[in-house]
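G., the chain you wanted modeled:
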Amino acid sequence: MNDVLPVAVAQFTVGPEPDANLATIRDYARRAEEAGARLLVLPEGLIARDGGDGVFVAEHAQPLDGPFVTGLRGISQETGVTLMGTVHVPVHEGGRNGTIGDDCRVANTFLAIRGGDIVATYRKLHLYDAFSEKESDTVSPGDSLPPIVDVDGWKIGVMTCYDVRFPETARSLAVRGADVITVSAAWVRGALKERHWALMAAARAVENTCYVLACSEVSGQNIGLSRIIDPLGETVANVGAQPGMITAGLHRNVLRSARVSLPVLVNRRFADPVLR
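Predicted structure as tokens:
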């Protein structure tokens, strides 16, 4: 178990060409490797985007053994950095020909990739049917709690975008032993949305005494403002509203100190309904 876990969070504009997006990710992974990071958190929906067009995203979905995820696995193997982010994967639900629509839908799938292998997957539980958006038009939700991934002895829980508005999801990770919660997002712009992003990412950290690594795609549609937050809710690093990468060291003594001074996980009085 390492006392310090070096991490990186990279936000960028996901474009319409998967190969170009892979090249961007490779560049950030190499920069993360050079900085000594063991984990690189990436945005939501990495394969292809065209503004806020959910159908475009769905139509560019690929299976986990397709070329995009194969490329991510190669990047992880080349750099030795664990990659986390989401891709859209076709999900056939009684369909006939695999086209998007009534015949075929997609799953917004969080991946953790280490050493060239997919070590964990998670289908987004909470679909973004809010603020006049309707992710469920093209995406089918998952039905399982998000996993926890070991990185150098640190327990990393994962969530996807809208999940951050549901505190029980983060709490389920904390009570299962998470030291860190990562959030891969494409946080849509709008009134108060920047405030909500900062507020809830900090709340999930302090109410669970976990580090939070929150990464959002940055574009005309989405806000960026990725950040690294400590277990008492303080922002350690913030990349702002432009493409870029931030790094930080997560410290075991900081985590322990927070949980001694603020023992909310020990003091809670109610059972955890999502775990029953």
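The mean pLDDT is 94.

Shout if anything looks off.
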